[in-house]
Amino acid sequence: MNKIFISDMEFFAFHGHYDEEKLAGNKFCIDLTMWADTEKAQKSDNLDDALNYQVAYAIVKDVITGTKSNLLENIAENVLNAIFKEFDGLKKAKIKIRKINPPMGGQIGAVGVEITRLR
Questions:
Q1: Ordered structural domains, the chain, with CATH
Q2: Is 99 a catalytic residue?
Q3: Which of 22, 68, 85, 99 is catalytic?
């Protein structure tokens, strides 16, 4: 099983517990790591045999920018659900979501969650 990853995806979205966060929005950084058998793609050099990370990116973007959640945990759950639904050959996935400079009353670079799921 091999690892495929997309790192440092950045989106502006409107997630948060407080109404102000949902109105003003915030920057989010996402890393997605997926484990799958890549042997067929390695040999064929054909995108149809690969786990297409352009599709994975589009899924992450759609969930992050097209929904509103109170918690980062819920965003992570929604992304993982969509990723596993799209890719039958996916064995394991890990998502790391960071909310940059969150409104917590002090200087904080980021808060975040990291969730791993097995099929």
A1: 2-118 (3.30.1130.10)
A2: yes
A3: 99
